[in-house]
Amino acid sequence: MAETMVESRKTTAKANLEVFSATLQELAKDDRNILVVTSDSRGSGKLIPFGQKFPEQHIEVGIAEQNLVGVAAGLASTGKKVFAVSPACFLSARALEQIKNDVAYSDNPVNLIGISAGVSYGALGSTHHSLHDFAVLRAINNITVVAPADPFETEQAIRKAAATPSPFYLRFGKKAMPLLVAEETDFEFGKGRMIRKGKDITLIATGETVYPAKQAAERLEAEAGLSATVISMHTIKPLDYNLLERVATTGKPIVTIEEHSVYGGLGEACASYLLQHNFHNRFKIMGIPDEYTVTGSQTEIFNHYGLTESGILQEALRLLE
After folding, report:
1. Going from the N-terminus, what domains does the chain have, and what CATH number goes with each?
2. pTM of the entire predicted model
3. Band of residue 2 on the pLDDT scale cut at 50, 70, 90
4. Which of 83, 70, 8, 99 is nearest to 42 (CA)?
C-alpha cells in the first residue's frame, strides 16, 4: 500500500497535510493504539476523514493547547501512539511549558504536529504566523524537530515517528508540494536529503522552501552555467553535521533558506556549527527578518522577503561574484 501511495503522487502536487492524514489513516487501520488529539483543528489538519473512520481513536479537546499536550502526554505514558495536532503558532507558544515538561522532560513519546506553519495562515497576520517554533524547540532537550519538504518526506516521517518511542515535533504548511526527485531515496531522521548535486554553491533548505531552492538551482545552471547542490535539511534537530561538513569542505558558498525567523532556525544552527569547527565559507541566511511581518498570502509574503526561485537565484549569484 505504501508503494501505491507514493506512486500516486508522482504526477500531481499534494499538500503535505493531506499526505499526513492519509498516512495516519492507513496506520490506524491496523493499530488501535494510534490516537489523534486535536484542538478544534480537525478541519485545518485534514483530519475529518480520520475522525469519521476511527471515532474511538480521535479525541477533541477544543481550543485548549495546554490541555491538548497534557492529554497527549498522559495517553502516551500508557503506551498509546499519540499525534497531537494544532496550529504551529499556538502549539509552540501557548503549550511550550507542557511540551518542555510533560513531553520532553518526562520522555513521553508524543508526536506534536504543528499545522499551517510558517506564514501559511498569511493574511491572518503575525498572531497566526509561526516563525519561532524551530528556535524555541531547538532549545529543549529530548525532542526531534522535523519539517518535511514533499509528500515522500511527509509519509516517511509519519511512519517512522509512529514507530519511534521518543518525542517529535513535525511541522507542516498548507501548500501543495510536488515530489522533489523522481526516484526516492532513503529517509532517516537527522540525515539531510540530497536533492541535487553541484560544484559551485550549496543551497540548504527545509520544508516548503526546498522546492524554490531546487528551481533556483535549475535556473542558475540554465542561465549562468553554474551548478548548485540542493539539500533538503528536513531534520532541524538533530542536524546532519556530517553532511554539513562535507559540503563546507569544498570551500564553496552556502545559502540556507527557511520559512522562519533568521534568528534561531536552520541558518543559525548551520552557521554556529561551521564557525565553531573552523569553516569560513561565504554564507547567507535567507528567512524572515526581525521586523513586523508583512500581511498577505504565503505567496505574497515569500515574494516580499525573496524566499522564491528568483530571490534565491539572486542571493546565490551575489555570493558567487
Report:
1. 7-177 (3.40.50.970), 193-320 (3.40.50.920)
2. 0.93
3. very low
4. 83
